[in-house]
Amino acid sequence: MKTEGGTTEQKRRAGEAAAAHVEDGMVVGLGTGSTAAHAIRALGSTVDGGCEIHGVATSFASKMLAREVGIPLRSLDTVEELDLTIDGADQVVTETGACIKGGGAAHAREKIVASISSELFIVADPSKVTETLDRSVPIEVLPAARTSVTAALTKHGGTATLREATKKDGPVVTDNGNFVLDCSFGAIGGPRSLGETLSSIPGVVEHGLFTGLATAVYVGTAKDVTCYEIDR
Ligand SMILES: O=C(CO)[C@H](O)[C@H](O)COP(=O)(O)O
């Protein structure tokens, strides 16, 4: 599992601090990635201790981990709303909670789950924190639209690259059967308006700019955790 940037300890502290807010009876969105995995493991311990929760996985990877640690699951296609989602980010602005997600190509389901959750806790290590989002934005596209979307992104000032798989020849294929374009725009001054532009391109399934969704950001350090509450 990807661990680039922060240390395991920083990620574990963030994940566990967020998971500590889960209460009996909650339906919880289970994010994807190495930091969210710490929260999923902590929730498994909570279930072991008698807490009755249900999880909704955002990817095949988080579903497998949730099963391994004994969290009862509900399928995303059966839920209307969730109490809380805990998920990681590739980059996050702690003041606003705006973030770039999709390093694990799971951002389409992650955004659906986040959008129907009363609370979204982003868990991160300090290497993810920034004042301005400037990483490449993952954009899930229908395979047939990869060329037309790439051209549209160029018109909007982006430089898009088709994400290649590392242990398979050819492109990464998402859990939804689509491709991912990683698109660099340089420093992103207005993530909300860029997100609206990306959503308007035919063939785009979902992009990794998350704005107006996070209610708190947990940043783990070697010794403790800082929680930034967001007024969304
Ligand atoms: O958005 C994601 C997956 O699509 C992940 O949450 C994001 O890539 C962060 O992962 P990690 O905690 O392993 O750094």
TrEMBL record:
Q: Where is the active site?
A: 110 (proton acceptor)
Q: Could you tell me which pathway this protein works in? A: Carbohydrate degradation; pentose phosphate pathway; D-ribose 5-phosphate from D-ribulose 5-phosphate (non-oxidative stage): step 1/1
Q: Which InterPro entries match?
A: NagB/RpiA_transferase-like, Ribose5P_isomerase_typA_subgr, Ribose5P_isomerase_type_A
GO cellular component annotations of the record: cytosol
BP term (GO), one:
D-ribose metabolic process
EC numbers, comma separated: 5.3.1.6
A Pfam family matched in the record:
Rib_5-P_isom_A
The entry lists its GO molecular-function terms as: ribose-5-phosphate isomerase activity
Identify the keywords attached in UniProt to this record, alphabetized: Isomerase
Q: Which CDD domains match?
A: RPI_A
Q: Which reaction does it catalyse?
A: aldehydo-D-ribose 5-phosphate = D-ribulose 5-phosphate
User: Per UniProt, where does substrate bind?
Assistant: 32-35, 87-90, 101-104, 128
Relate the assembly described in the record.
Homotetramer. Homodimer.
Q: What does this protein do?
A: Catalyzes the reversible conversion of ribose-5-phosphate to ribulose 5-phosphate.
The record's annotation in PANTHER family points to:
RIBOSE-5-PHOSPHATE ISOMERASE
The similarity comment for this entry is: Belongs to the ribose 5-phosphate isomerase family.
* Protein's name according to its UniProt entry: Ribose-5-phosphate isomerase A
Question: Which species is this UniProt entry from?
Answer: Natronocalculus amylovorans
